[in-house]
Amino acid sequence: MRLTFKITLFFIGGICLVMAWHGFSRLDRERDLLETQMRRHHYAIAQPLAVMVGESWDDLGEVYAYSLVESSNEADERVRIRWVWTEAESPERIRPEAPDGTGSQLARGMAVSWVDPDQIGAGRLYTYVPVVLDEDRIGALELSESFARQEAYLADSRRRIVETTLLILLMAAALAWATGLAFIARPVEALIERARAIGRGDLEATIELEGHGELTELAREMNWMSVQLLTARKRLEEESQARLAALKQLRHADRLKTVGTLSAGLAHELGTPLNVISMRSQMIEDGEVEGDAIQKNASIITTQTDRISKIIRKLMDFARVRSLQAEKIRVTSVVDEARQLVEPMAAKKRVTMNLDGPDEELVAVIDADQFVQVMTNLLVNAIHACEDAGGGNVDITVRSVERIHPDESSDRLRPYVAVQVADDGVGIADDDLEQVFEPFFTTKPVGEGSGLGLSVSYGIAREHGGWIEVESSYGEGTTFTVVLPFEEDE
């Protein structure tokens, strides 16, 4: 409707300009034509009268000539006629408002016509026609006529032009409005509604417009675009499903890699309880213990078996494939679970791990299993970095911070939970620091690293609405910080 209204206004504006130009041009032309006709009328009256007055002056005398002028003045009420002399000192002289040189032109036998706009009303037209006398004197007939009748005619013409213009404008507006509604507004509204439907995701419906104009062609193109978008959406969904499946497999592969990395430490951890079980069971079998001692040794065997089951269960839970199950969880407890998982490996590599949590544990909406995978990757990398340096320390810190999200354009600070893993190992070279989160990038020797751990960890952090930061000085150590959205503890 707004487009139709604008087109109608534009159409009417153009008509107004054309009609205004035509009306003013016509009025100016008619005003000039009326003035020309008045001059011709004056000349048509004055010239024969001047001849008659001149002959009467010579033949019948001055008095008769004056009476002839008076009689002519009374014959037409619209035109006033009087006798004048060209001498400036004469009582019956040319009007002082007349243009300069009027007397000299009359003396040369030339007629003079001029307009006095200062007259009361619409102004008057003055015409002087010379009358040559034998006494070496030049007289003239002065004819004057008001423009009132002509102005009345022009006013009537102006009124008719305005009425005609208004009628044309009304007819043009009605025609433009009806045409706009039929050929512009309704098709455009249909196109807008179809565009909104496409924006809502409805790509299967189509729009059909009658005719062969540009809007009909646009409707066909929108239908074709919907088909293309629907095909692209289906292809994107298939690709997204394939990508998610591949990502799931990569994460599982990273878990299995981590399980393999931890296996040596866990094997050492399982060795002690297995030795205890073997020794106690052998004592019972050989009959070295009797009575209450048998029950005591059986209890020891049960305790060590539970210990082995717990270690194996943790490893199996870590390796198990699970979908994202985010819930409000205390972050420090999950971090400690990951620490316990890699503790045997750290002890074997002569690396000390320290966990510093807040007095009041912080809460975040996370998937505990996936977050354990993130922390395990970071801790294993830190242990390897310290091993390369001949042993060292890994400090784990959980605290609340205020940060600006890197993907947001605003500079608003928001509360986050930051889990920091700092080691005093070999560090990361500056050239490698910008690539640590890229898939398959690793600084480890061939066969010792897949380059997936940090990439998978960063992806998990982003899925939780957070990110991972890294700082490192080559030869001094590295600090990884996992930043997660903070949640109020209920």
Q: Structural class per helix/strand content?
A: alpha+beta
Major sheet characteristics: 5 strands, mixed
CATH topology assignment of one domain:
Heat Shock Protein 90
CATH superfamily of one domain: Histidine kinase-like ATPase, C-terminal domain
H and E string: HHEHEEEHHHEHEEHEEHHEE
Query: Helix count, per DSSP?
Result: 10
The strand line-up of the biggest sheet is 6-8-9-11-10
Taken as a percent bin, the fraction of beta residues is 15-25%
- The average pLDDT score comes to 79
User: Mind telling me the C-alpha Rg?
Assistant: 55 Å
| Quaternary structure annotation | single chain
Bin the helical content: 55-70%
Shape: rod-shaped
Q: Examine the secondary-structure arrangement and name the CATH architecture of one domain.
A: 2-Layer Sandwich
Q: Kindly state the number of beta strands.
A: 11
- What is the CATH class name of one domain? Alpha Beta
Low-confidence parts lasting 5 or more residues at pLDDT below 50?
none
Q: Span between N and C termini?
A: 54 Å
Write the layout of secondary structure elements.
Blueprint: H1 2-59, H2 62-75, E1 79-85, H3 102-107, E2 112-116, E3 124-132, E4 138-146, H4 148-200, H5 214-286, H6 292-319, E5 327-330, H7 331-348, E6 351-356, E7 363-366, H8 368-388, E8 392-403, E9 414-423, H9 430-433, H10 453-463, E10 467-473, E11 477-485
Parallel strand pairs: 6-8
Antiparallel strand pairs: 1-4, 2-3, 3-4, 5-7, 8-9, 9-11, 10-11
Helix pairs in contact: 1-2, 1-4, 4-5, 5-6, 5-7, 7-8, 8-10
